């Protein structure tokens, strides 16, 4: 897509992870349909947007081929990575190899990785550095574990406590990366994952705007030399039609899960985020 940016200097960003829900035939059919739908809707989008898909590792190269052969604007993502380019790490995936395969975004630090595989903030930082060093963009999943008591009437200190908890997940990664490297944060409160009552749009906006302020204070307005445009924030929680309009003040897009496992739903969300003419 065109390289022009939004007024903030940050391009809208939207993507979907297949996690471990898709098999090989489903991945192929999903991509075929999504590539076709995006292509036919491209001219109706009001502004350029970066759109990515994150398949499993087994289908990564075949998805790259599908995107390439269709001359599609889809960008490729990966679900995890090792922090070293090579070595005796049986079963792991090299960031160098992901870059060679055409990967643009690499998801790290997801709550499932932390819960099931014991991933730490230090692990995430090491992976972020390796991703950036190989010319890719780390997509760092962040979120607070505890639900604030005053959820419907957040004080400044409530917001600061949440931001502080998230910042402990973000700061080591930013410190480990080159200051010129781009980064994406995918925010979702851990306390809301899988719950019947997700975080409210108002809550998401308050926290993500505060995260942006903290980033700009610590890394843009300081001697760190980063830019506001080099960090984009996505909301990574359950998303349905109309959500983006309610939270766009705080985020640059959405990181979608099962809702977007239907190609038509994915394309409709892309249209919501980029806008239509």
Automatic annotation (TrEMBL):
Homodimer. Keywords: Gluconeogenesis, Glycolysis, Isomerase. Belongs to the triosephosphate isomerase family. One of its GO terms (molecular function) is triose-phosphate isomerase activity. GO terms for biological process: gluconeogenesis; glyceraldehyde-3-phosphate biosynthetic process; glycerol catabolic process; glycolytic process. PROSITE patterns: TIM_2. It catalyses: D-glyceraldehyde 3-phosphate = dihydroxyacetone phosphate. CDD domains: TIM. Its EC number is 5.3.1.1. This is Triosephosphate isomerase. The keyword Isomerase applies. Pfam families: TIM.
